[in-house]
Fold this protein.
Amino acid sequence: MPAKGVSRVGGLGTAAVLGTAVATTAVLTSCGTSTGASPEQPSRAAPKGPSRSAPSESPSRAAPSKSPTPSTSPSRSAPGTVRLPPRHADFDYQIGGAYPPPAGVRIVSRDRTASPAPGLYNICYVNAFQAQPDGRASWPADLLLRDTNGKVVVDEDWGEALLDIGTAAKRERVAARVDRWIDGCAAKGFDAVEPDNYDSYTRSHHLLTANDATAFITLLSRHAHARRLAIAQKNTVELAGLRKRTGLDFAVAEECAEYDECGAYAKAFDDRVIVIEYSDSGLRKARSGFGTRLSIVRRDVDVSTPGSAGYVRKVR
């Protein structure tokens, strides 16, 4: 969620990767729908950290060469599987509250507690890697990441406890809970899911690694695909080069123009990238470099609704 420059979910530049990710996407299997997960509000993103070295499999940060004009129609990654968002389509980011989309919008992202917008391509936002303050008590104590003193590791910017995905057994348990939210997205009629805080390992004080994050997102990818949902990579540009291994279908990138990351996402995801900028300068830069290729919107950092004092939405 917004925003790397002011809030938490950002890509954090090129964060350190603590090992080569080896999660391999397996054959998809169907999963049943279950209920009972407690509601969770959208999270906020943390200030962008200092640049660090990128993994060897990360895409080049240079903008790719200009590609042929892409199709703007939603497509499927394979016959009979998931439906992908259209490229270069007008987008609105509504994770702070749902409202009637502006004219021309074809893609919208909303919190999992909301309903999809009729007739549009709908993305379901889920905070998958951290527990928000009002939902922390619902998590088993041993699934909250703890330091060597037994203290819960917290994302200080937003008061969210990091979930412990440091072992295969714990990843399975955390995924089982997040999968229920994904089931809810599918049951409501969303087309895709946007799992947030993929980069939480960079805030774990070295208790979690990039391998842990990619192994966990692979579990979510399998389940999303089994429910016929596409799945987005949210920020975390340093892991974009692993998207085929992890099974991620498209990217939702906050402030990628502001931090010169849009080219890496565009290369890794074949221009199937949704860009959210939180400043006029970021919007201008995104449009200058990628205005004919990517879906780009400028929102206010609170992602507020029309009528709110701080509401901002611009596409040019």
User: Anything to note?
Assistant: Residues 2-64+75-314 form a domain with the TIM Barrel fold (CATH 3.20.20.70). Confidence is low (pLDDT under 50) at residues 1-73, 75-80. The chain has one domain: 2-64+75-314. The chain has five helices and 16 strands.
